[in-house]
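Quick board copy: two proteins, each given as sequence then tokens.
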Amino acid sequence: MLEFRGKWLWVTYLLTPVITFFKILIPASLVYLGFYLSNLKYPFSDVLKACVIAEFVCLLPVFTKILWFEFVEPSFTLEEFNSFYPLSLFSLFGSSLLEKWFHYPFKALNVFEIGYWFALAGSLAFGLGQEFNQMLRIVVFYYGSYFVCWILFVVFISLSIF
């Protein structure tokens, strides 16, 4: 398995920037659609910049996990490391209490995701000179609806597999 991983590791170096690009492009497109439907005229590049700024919130759970296992619980198992999702609903229940198809929604519903929404609305409000409440409304309606649909899609796939 390690030999196979070493042989195909270069593929992850190609896929990571592509995945990150779409991870930023999708929210930017949805927010831009929200602007269009709300009759707000702003360049797509400004919306894209706001999404790039807000994307830094997604690094916080990774840093939290690293710091947790470095300083709070330095002796851990691989199972504990893989099932640790800080400040999420999953961390309240644990993997043993939930059905497999509940894992992803409970991991996705976390404080950092809500922080991303606020960071996106804040960077849009600051960058475009609009009210925070108006930008938050657009983020919640357009990106939030996509987020719910994505969770339902993953749950549907999980139910098909399990």
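And the next:
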Amino acid sequence: MHALFDSPGLRRVRLGEYPLWDEALALLHRDLAVTLPEQGPLQLLAQPSYEAGEPEYVYVALANGEWHGGHLYPKAAEDLAHALAIVADAAQDTVAERLGQAWPLCVEHNLGMHAREVEGQLSWWCAGERPRLGPAHVRAAVGALDTC
């Protein structure tokens, strides 16, 4: 568990420093606003590396500055789809651990969903069974929970 002021050198990442992560976070904000409207938007926080010459550590945090889980690797995001998968995973870790709940939940099954690539698009996938349709289903594309 970490909070905004736990670590020396921790700072909010400015818009534009990591453009792919900014885009990914914007899509996740749409889903967060629909599913957890009482929470403010997620944010990126950065902390200097402990190793000289290494890139800083970047975390996905709640609006209050708390985060949980590993850091994002600055050179890991090759494109928006890849960045979205990385940031969605980190956001889920932070929300689950800091708020004590799975996120996002499938409204049909009340189960936590996971981001999974389906037909070339990162989507929220639910493991819940649907009568006559079989197990598991896609709820919506990541960033589009407001459309279902």
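Board note added afterward: The CA atoms of residues 2 and 66 lie 5 Å apart.
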